[in-house]
Design brief:
Peroxisomal Thiolase, Chain A, domain 1; 20% strand; nine-stranded mixed beta sheet; alpha/beta; homodimer; 2 domains; 13 helices
Amino acid sequence: MREVCVIGVAMTRFGRYSEIWMEEFAREACEAAIHDSGVRREDIQVAYCSQSFQGRVAGQRILKDLGLTGIPVINVENACAGGGTSFHATWMAIAGGFYDVGIAIGVEKMTKGLIPPNPEDLEGLLGRTYPGRFAMMAQRHMYEYRTTREQLAKVSVKNHQNGSLNPYAHYRESLSLEAVLNSRMVAEPLTLLQCCPVTDGAAAAVLCSKDIAKKYHDQPIEIVASVVTSGIYQGVRKGDLSSESELSQRAAAKAYEMAGMGPEDIDVAEVHDCFSIAELLHYEELGFCRFGESGKLIEEGTTSLDGRIPINPSGGLLAKGHPMGATGIGQIVEIVWQLRGQAGKRQVKNPKVGLTHCVGGATPGIGQGACSVHILKK
Amino acid sequence: MREVCVIGVAMTRFGRYSEIWMEEFAREACEAAIHDSGVRREDIQVAYCSQSFQGRVAGQRILKDLGLTGIPVINVENACAGGGTSFHATWMAIAGGFYDVGIAIGVEKMTKGLIPPNPEDLEGLLGRTYPGRFAMMAQRHMYEYRTTREQLAKVSVKNHQNGSLNPYAHYRESLSLEAVLNSRMVAEPLTLLQCCPVTDGAAAAVLCSKDIAKKYHDQPIEIVASVVTSGIYQGVRKGDLSSESELSQRAAAKAYEMAGMGPEDIDVAEVHDCFSIAELLHYEELGFCRFGESGKLIEEGTTSLDGRIPINPSGGLLAKGHPMGATGIGQIVEIVWQLRGQAGKRQVKNPKVGLTHCVGGATPGIGQGACSVHILKK
């Protein structure tokens, strides 16, 4: 298996683009990533594009506007973990020796319409929708570990603070703890400002085999772990009402093994904070603290920009936004910028190793359907 | 790159399953393919699932009913070439050394609803829909090469004859030339019985690395070429009004090169006959005859079951049906059965090498968006 690097990244500012075709803003992200990488358009040999709601052959429709046609284009879908999946598939295509240079694309125009209910999802039809599910996890976490409403809300305060420093974030205003706690209740204890918004956007990354990376870019970032996996019936965390925990834990364990690293080696991470409680659960599942101690971690500022392990410096899904198929690649973009020292006002102090994590695709009976974890190294 | 074999295949009978959830009939196909392969469910390490209209994390929703959870599941989409793409991606995962055993799944419930128009497809909105586009190609072929209406209709007669011998085909009645010619006109010169029907169905294939294949199955079928590629602006065949020709030709050329073979080495093929004219065009693009001579090929019976190169012994899209994401895997299933000598009444005489070809995903400005060609060897 060959070693693979990321040599170019870009994203649109995440936001609402209801008047713009997705092909148009996705093309911008691809064009900028190619420019950033130093490769010529014609050097790109393969493309993977993730999306969930953009219709047939979305990748081809984006790439034709770039004149990037006649190459293998594979459209992938894995719900909220789609971006991580597209990046993983591009990594595989190069690591396996099939291609030398490829582009991973993620895009979503969420303002096109709401997520249609899955007629097989009886739990969902009975009201166990995303906010409801995550609210139950929050309730259980509060019960089991004495996690407080304030600790939950602080996740959103931190991420909006980070987002206020990120020109690519959907929301760029910092929020007070009171504003988060007093916003409209969606599902007890999760208030509106603890739920990620409806956001459009696109992101792209150019990957190549390590042996040729320096030819194109003087700061190639190594991919030292790339994992995609799916959920299982068993392994529900004790009293958690969800099997999400097991999935992210297992994906992270595999990634740490692949990289020959542990959570203590991670200097910065982007994790899937679709709701405030989700970020706390992921601190524990990814090994950034012990189970039950995530409330303390946010409380003590350990995951703030100037903390020991800054989490979601981009603003995360809560402030940067969550265009489903684009989110995983957007996380990669942020970590690459952080490792290169290009993250502007939200730059973390000299990080050497970064992690990205996305998870989603609620599937009746197995909890979350897909999870992706990547570890990148300067 | 490791050599890879197909060791198990299965499909549902293609047809209309409007009252059955797609998860249910797709599971049947997976279960039967796993049984056919001789692997234990727990030996399967990775899954790729193709579909275009089945919603988020379709693969996970299918596999959970089999208890096949906790493995990497990647959902792929490439319109009518989706099945070929899912098979190709599974091949890559094993050929690249990432996994030893994987399952490729294709499924579509077309009766769920019609294909929604793409708002960016201005040509489509102006009436250049699939039947119209293929009708123009037919008109041009008739003009350029004196291809006749009867020759076109004979494609459908042959494929329905083959379908009548296939218990897995949607339509199993043979049709007279008159019946095909006299059916309702859809787009001059294509009558209704020269257009593929709306069909539901699923198909699956189990793949493994060649070195362990005999452990599971005594007739492993080798994958000697696996190609996915996309269309381009240029390369429109002279006077053809379509760039589809260039795409299939290029994909086939790449596959022949990979296999170290030529069209003369192919003993049996499944090609993308979404309309009668499509099959004729593909004879030429895949090199089974020279350009302009496809009318003669069908006329002379060269592509009939007992001809020199039987094409679409399964009945093809015209009679077996065309559940989009499943079609490409359904073609693989038929070729594996033919190479194993398990094709019953439609068995071709001792074929050693078979080819599958699917193409689709009309993309404004580039013609067809995706094409996949595979060559399998006994």
